[in-house]
Amino acid sequence: DLAGNQRNSAAEQVNVQVELGSVFSGTYSPGRYDPFTTFTEYFTVGSTHNYYLSFEGLYGDNIGMLLDNVKVSLVPLPATILLGFIGLGIGGWKLRKSM
Question: Residue 37: which residues within 8 A CB-CB, separation 6 or more?
Answer without folding.
Answer: 1, 2, 3, 30
